[in-house]
Structures are given as structure tokens and as C-alpha cells.
Amino acid sequence: xxxxxxxxxxxxxxxxxxxxxxxxxxxxxxxxxxxxxxxxxxxxxxxxxxxxxxxxxxxxxxxxxxxxxxxxxxxxxxxxxxxxxxxxxxxxxxxxxxxxxxxxxxxxxxxxxxxxxxxxxxxxxxxxxxxxxxxxxxxxxxxxxxxxxxxxxxxxxxxxxxxxxxxxxxxxxxxxxxxxxxxxxxxxxxxxxxxxxxxxxxxxxxxxxxxxxxxxxxxxxxxxxxxxxxxxxxxxxxxxxxxxxxxxxxxxxxxxxxxxxxxxxxxxxxxxxxxxxxxxxxxxxxxxxxxxxxxxxxxxxxxxxxxxxxxxxxxxxxxxxxxxxxxxxxxxxxxxx
Length: 337
Ligand SMILES: [Zn+2]
What we know:
about 325 residues; alpha/beta; Rossmann fold; Zinc Finger, Delta Prime, domain 3; 2 domains; globular; disordered C terminus; binds zinc ion
């Protein structure tokens, strides 16, 4: 669990939140908005610990008091973590929050409610939460997280102090990976390039899944290049079974096509996300036309957002693979000999 002062890439937000704690100007409700994996939850946890700490220094948690240890071990009685139960946050969960809010805090300090994927609240749950947000008892702090804040009603948004979490710039991610995981610069740069500004993803890649996932993406691209209708549909069915993995795979696929495109256009190895794969990239570049690659990247982006937005994964993948399959769309125009 990180301290606020250790959080990378969101300096302005961290400073504002630390000042709020320091100057006792904490709002009743916060919304941390931004794509998955950029650090919303990490920041929210660090902020919650700072809010509950008995001896905060410069607005940040001390890490040593009883309260800090309880937050760290997820057993602080005044810290409540709310996640969707299944696909949504249901009214029963919000009623439970309401019930707790009306009591005094157990340990005499603040009460903190961290609501993950807030946009999944049902309409009833939203109405119920609004009542609490309209007249929040003193010392109660809601921190809501959402990758789709546009799906939250304006009545909720207007009652929250909103912070937009943007993807972390590549160079900051690279130095953080070197500092936090002791990676060599080249490897850190590679993982940063592929993680799309997400520290969570970069750290996950750093544990060793990266090479395997990238190989899966380049393998998929090669298979699609040759695929006809039946093969494309088969691949869609097979891959649709793991929604979480598929989003990662599609992001990897975008990076892969991007490298092939960059190589075709510039022939510059230093511009590649995968400079260690230059031989394969070079070989693949001969199989595509620039226009097809641009189209492929745009199409994957579009389908990825549909899957994020809970479209039927299998249908979305079928549509994507049918559009990418070279055997149907004649991508093999300039294969050469
Ligand atoms: Zn403390």
C-alpha cells in the first residue's frame, strides 16, 4: 500500500488532496475519474489512510498509528470498501452505507466510504445515495471511482469534487518502474510503452506476464492475416471467454499493428514500442498496406470501447475479426514473393 507522497504521475491531484487534509478542508464527496489502471484506486486508498490517520504529517498518513495499520490490513471499522456485487452496486449495498453513516464513527475520527466502479450503481442505489450526499453527517467522506463518469447522473456529479486521472506519461512511468522494481532502463521503457500510461498494468507486466501476452497478440495478428470467415469466427468464440484478458490483448494488438505501421512509414527502430522484436516487425510489415493498418488500429479501438461498455464480447469480437481477417479483406495485396 502506497503513501500519498509515493504516488507517481498525479502530482497536482496528490498535492491538492494533501492540502485538504492538512488544512482541514476535506470535502464530503470525491469522484476520481479516469481509465482503468491509471492509479485511481491506489490514490483513493492512500487518501483514505491519510484521512483516517491519527497523526498525519504534512497531510499524509504516518503509517505507524493504530488507524494506519488497520487501513493497511483492511480492518478499520470506519473504512468501508464498496464494490459491485456482480455487475452492479445494488440498493441494499447503499442502504448498508446509509445505516452506518448515521452512527458515530467507531474510533472517533472520520468515516470513509470508497465506492469502486460507481457508474454501476442501479437507479435505486443512486437515489438512495443522493439522500446521504445531500445531508452528509460531519466527518463522512465518500470517494467514488469511475472509468465512465459520464454514466453517473448529474445530481451525483454536482455533489462531488471531481479529479480527472490521466494516463501517466511514458518517461514518468519508466523512471517509476526503475525506482520501484529495479528494472533495467530498456525493459522499463518497453513495459511503459505497452502499458498505456497505467502504473497498475506496468507493474503487472513487470511480474513476468509481458512476454507471454505480447507473443499472444503478435500470434493473433499473424493468424488473422491468413484467416477466412470460419477461422475468424472460431477465434472470436475462443477468445470471448475471458473478458478481462481480451481487453489487454486488444491493447497489445494495437501496439503491435502500430509498430508495423511505424516501421512501414519510417523504418526507424528507435520509434518502435518493441525494438527487441524488430526482425519480426520488419517481416510482418511486408504483409500489410498502410491504410489497412490505420483502419485496423481504429477498428480495434472502437471495439475495445464497446467491450468496456459491456457490449456482448463474442459479437464484438466477431465483428472485429471479420474486419481484420486478411483472407476475407484481401490484406495480402503486397506480400511480395
Ligand atoms: Zn497514522
